[in-house]
Amino acid sequence: MNEAPPDHGPPLRVAVVGSSFGGRVHVPALQAAGFEVVALVGRDAARTRERATHLGIANACTSLADALVLGVDAITVSTPPDSHVDLVLEAIEAGTHVLCEKPFALNAHDGNCMYIAARDRGIVHCTSFEFRWSPLDATIGRFVAAGGIGDIKLATFLQISSLVAGGLHPAFNDEWWFDARRGGGILNAAAPHNIDRFRTWVGEIDAVSARLDVTGPRVASPDAAEDAYTATFRMRSGATALMQHCAAAWGEPTFAFKLVGTTGTITLGRETASLGRGPGDNQNLEIPDDLVLPDIYIPQGDPKHAFTFMELPPFVRLAQRFAEAIRHGDPEWSPPGSPPTPTFADALATQRVVDAIRLSSRENAAWVDVQPLSATGA
Predict the structure, then answer these.
(1) Pick from 42, 99, 53, 48: nearest CA to 72
(2) pLDDT tens, 146-196?
(3) By residue range, what is the domain housing residue 49?
(4) Which end of the chain has the least Cβ crowding within 10 Å, N or C?
């Protein structure tokens, strides 16, 4: 599959920083969207060269500086969270456009530094909220924006799984995933996507009451990353929202996102989205043709690719929007009818909610105000 728009001149040149998730998802998505991936950056020279060769990338680098001298238009960052700020600021200083993975940063202070630097330098900045283009998510977003369920009064997200119940899943990096100091844990791994759903569908989050927990067979310590969280949100719209996720529970998995409005209720599951408007009413939402994602090859049989089928197709759309934003010189540019392109402003707003969740948990679930994004980004 090649989703590149026609007649846009030579391909944009991009370097992918991070050879694991970057190699599995960023590289094929960027290639499908019409980018020329000219370099793969990783810490281990031999491993990075092997992966670059497998992916058809000419240059394998062990530093971002080595990739930048190749004359790239953009980079994508898919490294551990504690490395994001230095890499992003280095690219911005070089005048290079940036797409950064979530979690955006270790904290909102670092996120704010990246956002202000990109904004003030005129850099196109994008963050990896690719599920905005998941067909079900995009359909719900369009339906809600059109007033399909009236005013949303209650929003709930619940996910229970055994993802890390027996140790770390092979798709994750065991070097840092359970280390809170480096940005590990299920809050950073999963909550940004769901916070983005709340912000996109319901509005801004004003205050948080939350708890983080270690529920799996690990010894809790100050450096142990959580495998479960529960957060209640006060939404600016007046709605109440609940987000709960445990990734260390054996048994039947649960995934559900519900939006309760004044004229209907939407339920998002793993494979369907449904609408209820009365007793016993439960009709599937039809996905509009323009929100259907094209097929793309997904490797089979490799546990590291266990989630690629969910991640890669919408990431192609994200990569397309990143390219279009670069060509238009506007990080917020998106075509009519498309979900809005997620920028560093969205990443920072989400990071501030994550910070508030952590502070609330440290203070025994006390209510904590979420700091708004001011006009200056401070």
Answers:
(1) 99
(2) 999 999 999 999 999 999 888 777 777 777 888 889 999 999 999 999 999
(3) 13-131+310-343
(4) C
